[in-house]
Amino acid sequence: MLPRNRPPTHPGEMLFKEFIEPSDITQSAFARHLGWSFARLNEIVRGKRGVTADSALSFGEALGTGPEFWLNLQRNWDLWHSQRKHRPVGPLKSLVRR
User: Fold this and answer.
1) Domain limits at 38?
2) What torsion do the CA atoms of 77, 83, 85, 87 make, to the nearest 10 degrees?
3) Which residue among 39, 42, 88, 96 sits deepest, i.e. has the most Cβ atoms within 10 Å of its Cβ?
4) Structural domain tally of the chain?
5) pLDDT tens-digit series, residues 23-49
6) Domain with 27 in it: what CATH number?
7) What is the pTM of this model?
């Protein structure tokens, strides 16, 4: 369920606060472990880049969480922000077939 009064936690914030920071590893060391550039990881941590299926697989393997955890965080983030911009569309009453 999405929060109503605040944005959901960005996966990068979760990654940093719950995994990187407590493990006492640097972003640089974690990026090297993943075979990534520091910039790629840091953009996710700062919320400037989203988590893709590929990055979710890497996080899941490295951190023992499974990729779904990361994809669900990203989905919630994207959906919450999209709902704020979305213009409602009424239901389609009937389909015309030709």
Assistant:
1) 11-81
2) 160
3) 42
4) 1
5) 999 999 999 999 999 999 999 999 999
6) 1.10.260.40
7) 0.87
